[in-house]
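Summary of Year 1 activities. Much of the first year was spent building the evaluation harness for sequence design. The harness presents a backbone, in tokenized form, and records the residue chosen at every position. We chose the following record to illustrate the format because it has been used consistently in internal testing since the harness was completed.
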């Protein structure tokens, strides 16, 4: 066994053993443990767990890859995902924690005094969470297939098994402590290679500063200027200009990601695990710090990965790399099918250009950039192994949180809340575990047949959460007259118009070559792309809800009193008062 493989096995299986041990130590014995870790997690612990829950395969694997290829346009992910956290911390988390319930649909059921509202919220939650989980499963498959040198499908099955063990056994309690360990693995795996590469390229050990520094070769050229020159020479758009199709689309994309973040059920659930409203606010602050550590490094990782990739394929301007002399990392990624070369002109050299007719790099999957980056930069094998463990930690931590959100929405909200209210706690816990197992199988199937690359699929999930759940929560807290009927109409219309737009655009994302309304082209609605449409869906949700409210009349007086009480500063009378 070669050195790299040995280090990779040690890093990956060592971290897995740690996750299993934590899950066994923190296994859930009650529904309170299973759903909200007994409400006893400290703000610092919760901040780290939120960080891990939050930094999915999309953040760890895909985001820097998107920034590498979109350049300046990729900044929407940084602004949207971190900005959404501020919204969540300020506008939603403290009020929902004060109300003191386990899940988002349960809050919506109470606030809108309606089982119908609860069922609609469950449906919206499952649609958004399943869409999000596809991205995590693809991340697991990509990382495993490359680093353990197994088939993508087998890698996915191994990942499904690992999540199943600690998520089903431990519930929120096991997931919380596992996510704290995963955050530590993830942050080291992301920043250590970035420090090495920043030193190599610019001589500056701080990647955030290296991005704006001059190159270490003594030329006096800034890194970003060099990158602009390299990509434009090959016919690509400048790295530092907008590649996302205009200011309005960038604004809509950022808003969609922001309000989608604030409406993601698996993240909101984390705020129910702390003992008080004050602790909910504090844990949001800690989470922003922990998330910022990774998110401020991502632009440097993306830019440096793109520069290293271009310099490898065309080491000297106008002189292309001989395919027979391609480096080992190139061969390794070719085996996964995520990197493909086709010698169109028969000269044995690699032409990598923006022109599809002459470009011979027929596939460069964006999701490989972070994982391949250390090998492209010739970093030590232990660093490459650490990145493999980090990528898997990112995918597994978010997958576990999403699976818990799905299982609790079905076992707690649908079965106990609507269908069988007299279900015992023991049976509810068993139902939660069975539902989670089924959800893992379904998400594994979708991971084997994923629509688009990981972060694109994830962006769609944020759009769905933005158009359905976020407006319902905002109106529930800040509009005390908002009625149940109006909220249900709003949620249905918001998610409905977003899904119609997404499925219509690009054919249907899930079924290529099909379309409801005929091809309307890329500029269907003010040039707003499908992944950015969640912001428009949210506006539709708000508009429909307030129109229906005018027609049907306000919420009853006792509900308005409940909302007033929720907004008064102070603690909940008892944690998770049912």
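For this record, the design step produced the sequence shown next.
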């Amino acid at each position: 066994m070669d050195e790299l493989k040995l280090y990779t096995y040690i890093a990956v299986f060592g971290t897995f053993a740690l996750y299993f041990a934590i899950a066994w130590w923190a296994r859930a014995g009650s529904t309170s443990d299973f759903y909200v870790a007994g409400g006893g997690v400290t703000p610092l612990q919760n901040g780290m767990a939120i960080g891990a829950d939050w930094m999915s395969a999309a953040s760890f694997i895909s985001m820097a890859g998107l920034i590498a290829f979109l350049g300046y346009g990729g900044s929407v992910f940084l602004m949207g995902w971190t900005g959404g956290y501020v919204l969540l911390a300020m506008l939603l988390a403290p009020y929902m924690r004060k109300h003191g319930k386990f899940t988002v649909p349960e809050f919506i059921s109470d606030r809108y005094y309606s089982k119908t509202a609860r069922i609609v919220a469950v449906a919206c939650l499952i649609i958004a969470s399943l869409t999000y989980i596809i991205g995590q499963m693809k991340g697991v498959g990509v990382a495993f297939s490359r680093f353990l040198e197994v088939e993508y499908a087998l890698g996915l099955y191994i990942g499904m098994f690992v999540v199943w063990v600690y998520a089903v056994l431990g519930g929120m309690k096991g997931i919380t402590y596992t996510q704290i360990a995963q955050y530590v693995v993830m942050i080291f795996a992301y920043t250590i290679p970035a420090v090495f590469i920043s030193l190599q390229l610019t001589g500056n050990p701080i990647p955030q500063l290296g991005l704006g520094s001059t190159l270490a070769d003594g030329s006096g050229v800034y890194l970003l200027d060099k990158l602009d020159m390299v990509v434009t020479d090959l016919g690509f758009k400048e790295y530092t200009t907008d590649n996302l199709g205009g200011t309005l689309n960038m604004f809509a994309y950022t808003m969609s990601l922001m309000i989608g973040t604030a409406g993601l059920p698996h993240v909101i659930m984390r705020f129910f695990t702390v003992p008080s409203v004050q602790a909910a606010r504090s844990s949001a602050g800690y989470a922003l710090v922990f998330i910022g550590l990774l998110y401020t490094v991502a632009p440097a990782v993306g830019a440096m990965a793109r520069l290293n990739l271009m310099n490898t394929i065309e080491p000297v301007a106008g002189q292309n790399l001989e395919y027979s002399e391609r480096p080992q990392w190139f061969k390794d990624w070719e085996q996964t099918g995520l990197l493909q070369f086709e010698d169109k002109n028969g000269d044995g050299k690699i032409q990598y250009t923006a022109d599809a007719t002459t470009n011979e790099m027929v596939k460069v999957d964006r999701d490989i950039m972070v994982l391949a980056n250390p090998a492209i930069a010739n970093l030590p094998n232990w660093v490459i192994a650490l990145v493999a463990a980090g990528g898997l930690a990112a995918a597994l931590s978010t997958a576990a949180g999403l699976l818990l959100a799905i299982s609790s929405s079905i076992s707690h909200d649908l079965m106990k809340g609507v269908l069988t209210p007299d279900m015992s706690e023991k049976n509810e816990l068993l139902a939660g575990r069975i539902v989670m197992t089924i959800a893992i199988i379904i998400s594994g199937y979708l991971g084997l047949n994923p629509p688009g690359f990981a972060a694109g699929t994830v962006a769609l999930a944020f759009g769905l959460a933005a158009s359905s759940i976020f407006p319902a929560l905002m109106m529930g807290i800040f509009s005390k007259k908002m009625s149940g009927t109006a909220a249900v109409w709003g949620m249905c219309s918001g998610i409905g118009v977003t899904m119609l737009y997404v499925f219509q655009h690009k054919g249907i994302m899930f079924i290529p070559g099909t379309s409801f309304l005929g091809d309307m082209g890329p500029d269907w609605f003010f040039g707003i792309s499908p992944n950015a449409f969640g912001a428009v869906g949210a506006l539709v949700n708000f508009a429909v809800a307030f129109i229906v409210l005018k027609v049907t009349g306000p919420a009853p007086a006792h509900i308005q009193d409940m909302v007033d009480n929720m907004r008064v500063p102070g603690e909940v009378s008892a944690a998770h008062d049912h």
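The beta strands are 339-340, 363-364. Quantitative recovery figures across the full test set are reported in Table 2.
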